[in-house]
Amino acid sequence: MHRRQGFTLIELLIVMIIIGLLATIATAFFWDAKDKALVKTMESDLRTLAAQQELYSPGTLTYAASVGDLTEFTESPGVSISITYADAFGWAAQATHPSLATRSCGIFVGDAPAADGAPATQPGVITCD
Q1: Backbone angles phi, psi at 123, to 5 degrees
Q2: Which among 9, 23, 43, 108 is most buried, taking Cβ atoms within 10 Å?
């Protein structure tokens, strides 16, 4: 009886299946971490926007109605921020990212109503869905 050196087809298939399962698990963790990072970026941009709004309002006696009015504010790459409401007593904004089609973050301050579709429910608190 002579035994050949090497692996059988079944052994190779089992190894390939194990590698495939590990790759699937690793990919799921990667995408979850990426999504969390994008949400944190949107939250950070809204925090920066809030600070810029507070710097803008004393000189104009109102809050900025568009992001373009805030000369010191720049959105992060890919993040889109829209100010949905602004007057002398409050403002509201919503942040989105194209990679997170179903998620958004929002904030409203003062007497402003919450932005339509934005998850914010308490004044001054950034909330993401």
Answers
A1: -60, 135
A2: 108
For the whole model, what pTM was predicted? 0.80
What mean pLDDT is predicted for residues 13-37?
Answer: 94
CA atoms within 13 A of residue 5's CA, in its CB half-sphere: 0
What residues does 107 pair with on adjacent strands? 93
CA 55 to chain centre: 24
Gyration radius (Cα) of the chain, Å = 24
* Beta carbons of 54 and 62 less than 8 angstroms apart: no
Q: Report pLDDT digits (tens) over 91-119.
A: 999 999 999 988 899 999 988 886 666 68
Residue position matching structure tokens 């608190």: 125
The number of beta carbons lying within 10 Å of the beta carbon of residue 109 is: 21
Residue 112's alpha-carbon distances to 63, 68, 87, 90, 117, in angstroms, are 11, 20, 8, 5, 14
Query: What pLDDT, on a 0 to 100 scale, did the predictor assign at position 113?
Result: 80
Closest C-alpha to 49, from 80, 78, 73, 14: 73
